[in-house]
Structures are given as C-alpha cells and as structure tokens.
Design a protein that fits this description.
Length: 310
Amino acid sequence: MSKSRFLCLFVGLLTTLGFLSCKPRVPNQFIQPNELEDLLFDYHVAQAMAQIESTTKEANRDERDSIRNYNRTFYFATVLKKHGVTKEQFDSSMLYYYTRADRLYPIYKRVVKRLEDEAVKYGASEGELNRYASVSENGDTVNVWEGNRNAMLLPYPPYNRLDFTQQADSTYKPGDNLIFSFMAKFQYQAGTHEAVVSLTAKLDNDSIISRVTHFTVDGRCQVRVNLPEKHTLKQLTGFVYLTKSADNASTLKLMFLSNLQLICIHKHTEEKTDKPAMTIRTDSIQLQKRNDSISGTIPDSMLKAVKLEN
C-alpha cells in the first residue's frame, strides 16, 4: 500500500471517529448545560429559603401558604435576574431539555450532588443527611432514608418513577410508625398533573402492609405505615410515580422532589417498676390477725397515728 493511500485512509478514519464522537450542540437560543446547572442549583436553594421563611412566620396555614407562594415567586425572579435570563428563555430552554431527557437528567444529577455537598458544607454531616436522629414527645424519631434527598420526574418512562428498597436492621422495632415524606413542586406550563406515592412493608412472616396516596398540588406529601407489635420488619419498598397527562401537548411538565425522608417513629412505652404503686386508704384498713391468735382489729385511734405514703 502506498504512503499516500495509507495517509488518506488514516485521515478518513480520524474524521469518521471525530464525527461519531461529537454530540449535537445545544442551540444558542437556549440556556447551555453548564449555565442551566448553575441556574437550577440556585433555583432549588432559593425555593428552600422560601419554604423555611414561610414556616418560621407566626401565622395561620393560609397566611403561611400565601407567604410561601410570594417568596417562591420573588426568589425565582431574583435567580433569573442573577443569571441574566428571562422567564420566557427559562421556559423555552426547559421545554427543549424536557424533550431531551438524556441531556436533562445528567444535569440534574449534578445539581443534586451539589445540593448534598452544600448541606455538608454548612454543617450537616454525611450521616445526618441520611440518618438524622432526634427525640420527639412520644418517643425516638429517626430518619432512615438512604437515597438522595432530591429528585426530578418526567411524565414518561423511564423517568416517571422514583423507586427505592431498604432492608431492615436493628433500627426498626415492632410497633414503629413509618412515614415516607417529601416536598413536591410541579413545573407544568399546561395540563393537569397528578402523582402517586406508595410505601410497602414486608414483615418477617412475609405478610405485606401497603399504603398508597395520590396528590395533585405543591407542598408536603407523605404516606404512613404502622408496623404491628407482634412482627418485625423485613424490607421496605416504595415509589413516587408521575402520571401522564390526559393532553399530549409537548409543553413543559416536570416534578421536583426535595427533602426526601423516611421517618421511623418508635412507639413510646412507659418504664415499668418492679412493684406497682399502691394507694392505701387509712379509713379502709383492717388488719386481721392469724387464725391461731387472738383475732381483732386495730382501733381507729391507732390508725390515725400512722402516716402511710405511696
């Protein structure tokens, strides 16, 4: 083979490999991946701030909801201004990525990782993010969630479900209350939206306890399973499923999940003493001597002189 022919084949091979390795670029009119990652990160931090501020206000539920909605709108506008993006640009860019979930999902996974790292940076330990313990009024309360604290769902497979499985350990006790909880935020340009959340407990005798609930509005969602007192937990499974809208319009449809938790509340039991407390009334005491002795009763005058305490 001549050198010139070999060179032509080599250059052609490099050109072909280069063409195959190149991914289509995001059109310039849309937010580029790195910038979108930064914007989504700031967006979720801002939404968390709005949630915290609304819960610290001394107001009734309707007033807190109003404060939260106002704060979310205000902080969202602040984030867009920081990044020099209009709401129209944001919506159109999210719609572009929405129809290309293979691009949006890697971006969102990096956002989730950054949110977790930020929590550690400002004081939360790795263990606290997944296994936070505190003492409540009715007993010990433990967050046993082992997955990411944030997620994103789209209304078509395989991106429309968040599934999880956790094996039981010594943390769980018979009689525990288990609560799967998170904050939900629907990002829909049009159409109705609904999601389903499920929590299932498999016990040591292979019996199943399952609870399912539907939700259609933003805010906290939770589902609860109460474990029986005579059996121990073997496995926990659950899912969040974003249903497909009745309309097939190609408009933006996303659901963000944040602060995912799996709370285990131990049943509170009273400490038992060796001898139960007794209340003895002096006006009802009558001491009877043994049969082989002289029987009789203690005079009331003597009883009044005796002080009995519980």
